[in-house]
Write a structure and sequence with these properties.
- The chain is of the alpha/beta class and 345 residues long.
- The protein folds into two domains: 20-150, Rossmann fold; 175-344, Glycogen Phosphorylase B (Rossmann fold, 3-Layer(aba) Sandwich), CATH 3.40.50.2000.
- 29% of the residues lie in helices and 14% in strands.
- It is built from twelve helices and eleven strands.
- Helix 4 (104-111) links the parallel strand 4 and strand 5 (117-119).
- Helix 2 (36-45) runs parallel beside helix 5 (140-150) and helix 6 (190-202) crosses helix 7 (216-225).
Length: 345
């Protein structure tokens, strides 16, 4: 059963009766969306359990969109740190699953709740917990499906799609530019996004710029450089609400984005995308092979993580991507809205 992405949030801090399954994944939007196949596998394996997701409260609407989560248990930590504790009410969970990380930092908060079963990757720091061996060179979505498979739960890494919201797009048919990311290492320069936006606008495309909380300055710089009005920027002072972002993405001509959450949302909704990679290989976090998605990356080795994904300057591999490459990639995407040319829009 699927749930609408524009339904009310599903937060819960209290105890309700019946068996409960707790999943820890207290990270951002892209992290949640890459875990959708694992969450759905758990939902199928435990149909009588209430599936509780320990994640930031802002993920509630996205969690609902997965069709797998019954309740969100608000849990967070600064940056990408592991929460030190989980506020859990009532009897211990019947099953707890670590989809957050590998090792004591994420194992111990779950073990402190005394679950009847705890699924996690093996680690020398918690030798009493069985589990498969962690692999560094593995796609993030495949990683969690392999964990569940080790415990006898079948999971399909390709089960990534979420249904579009019923609400209309605020900018139907637009090319969406998302210049932000939570680290500078994965932010393609704003002036290059502006050049892409200006060229697309000149070709007759509608262009909008999305921004997360705190990204208003960069997003408006992109809009100005592209010759777009201030109204073309969505978000910035705060995140774009998930239902609005999902509606925009579902109705978009294409999304141009770095290695961050909206890239995974485009994959989940089947929207064509151009995704720009730098410090981390697409084989770890990229979209599945498809004509819908074009990945741009210029590595100088076969390393899966040639740079620092959380670095404070743009990664050198990211900077090798040119404006002309991005425009060519956008033009080669299939058009989900038909065969209109830019001039026809």
């Amino acid at each position: 059963m699927t749930r609408r992405t524009d339904a009310p949030p599903l937060t819960d801090t209290g105890h309700t009766g019946g068996p409960r399954l707790l999943v820890l994944r207290a990270l951002g939007l892209g992290d949640l969306l890459t875990a959708v196949p694992a969450l759905r596998a758990l939902r199928r394996a435990y149909p009588g359990h209430r599936l509780m997701l320990a994640a930031p409260a802002r993920m509630a609407e996205a969690a609902r969109a997965t069709g797998a989560v019954d309740r969100l248990l608000p849990t967070s930590a600064p940056g990408r740190s592991v929460p030190g504790r989980i506020d859990w009410a009532g009897p211990p969970p019947d099953v707890a699953v670590d989809l957050h990380g590998n090792g004591p930092p994420s194992h111990l908060p779950l073990r402190a709740l005394r679950p009847a079963r705890l699924f996690a990757y093996a680690h020398p720091g918690t030798p009493d917990l069985p589990g498969p061996a962690w692999r560094d060179d593995e796609h993030e979505g495949t990683r969690w499906c392999r964990l569940l498979s080790w415990y006898g739960i079948r999971a399909d890494p390709s089960d990534l799609r979420v249904p579009p919201p019923e609400r209309p797009s605020p900018a139907p048919g637009a090319v969406v530019l998302h210049p932000g990311a939570d680290a500078a290492a994965r932010r393609w320069p704003a002036e290059r996004f502006a050049a892409v936006g200006g060229a697309l606008r000149a070709a007759g495309h509608r262009v909008v710029v999305t921004a997360g909380a705190g990204e208003a300055r960069s997003a408006h710089a992109v809009a100005r450089g592209a010759g777009l009005p201030r109204s073309a920027v969505l978000g910035g002072d705060a995140d774009v609400p998930f239902a609005d972002l999902a509606a925009l993405t579902a109705g978009a001509r294409a999304v141009v984005v770095g290695d961050t959450g909206p890239a995974h949302l485009a994959t989940a909704l089947g929207t064509p995308s151009v995704v720009l990679f730098g410090p981390v290989a697409p084989r770890l976090w990229g979209p599945p092979p498809s004509a819908l998605h074009r990945v741009l990356w210029h590595p100088d080795s076969d390393a899966a993580r040639p740079g620092d994904a959380h670095g404070d300057v743009p990664d050198e591999r990211l900077l090798r991507i040119t404006v002309a490459e991005v425009l060519e990639a956008v033009n080669r995407l299939p058009d989900p809205l038909g065969t209109l040319t830019g001039a026809d829009r």
